[in-house]
């Protein structure tokens, strides 16, 4: 039997949910590694819904679980039903939904609250010494929950290639060690079994983002 890996989604779409290309890359690479993905999402309302053509919020209301089911092709479970005992690892792709629906990072930064369900799941895998893979913005969840951990969201100096580099500085303010890495690289915090990569925190060609996520997934499965 291959490793069973929980993949936690935050909706469907970069601006208000999970980043679709990152989520797809995680699922493809897990399949390539012979691992079995089990997809979960919280059964809660999204913070808001963004029109992805205009980049502006709308008056619409959507549910995180229902929207995440689009990516999972309907094969998804309520995050409240996740049981760490039957699983070998956890991966959370990025997208603004992580900062809006899984936490309040988008509005409160380092003073954010991580949703209780998400925090409980992360702490359960950590306590069981099972690996956790995080990409793009999702390492901020670990930064908030595991003080002193080592993470990467890419680079800590803002430029055209790294438009979200201030995130690294904020994570340092939470007491984490940020390690600068290129988009095709990963960082492994061996003590905490955290594997991180920057993904779309970098303005890079999509194949490089895909390759970086592949290395993250491969290492998570190896550690499991």
Walk me through this protein's architecture:
This is GAL3A protein. InterPro entries: Class_I_gatase-like, ElbB. The chain is an alpha/beta fold and 224 residues long. It has a single domain, classed as 3-Layer(aba) Sandwich (Rossmann fold), CATH 3.40.50.880. It has 8 helices and 11 strands. Strands 5-2-1-6-7-11-10 form a 7-stranded mixed β-sheet.
Low-confidence stretches: none
* Major sheet details: 7 strands, mixed
DSSP E strands, number: 11
Gyration radius, in Å = 16 Å
Oligomer type: single chain
Distance between the termini: 13 Å
How much β-strand is present in the residues? 15-25%
Task: Determine the number of helices (DSSP H or I, runs of at least 4 residues).
Answer: 8
List keywords for this structure.
Rossmann fold, 8 helices, two-stranded antiparallel ribbon, 7-stranded mixed β-sheet, alpha/beta, GAL3A protein, ElbB, 224 residues, Class_I_gatase-like
Give the topology.
Elements: E1 4-8, H1 20-32, E2 36-41, E3 50-51, E4 56-57, H2 64-71, E5 76-78, E6 89-92, H3 96-100, H4 105-108, H5 116-127, E7 132-135, H6 139-145, E8 150-151, H7 166-173, E9 177-178, E10 187-189, E11 194-197, H8 206-223
Parallel strand pairs: 1-2, 1-6, 2-5, 6-7, 7-11, 8-9
Antiparallel strand pairs: 3-4, 10-11
Helix pairs in contact: 1-8
Protein name: GAL3A protein
Organism: Anseranas semipalmata (Magpie goose)
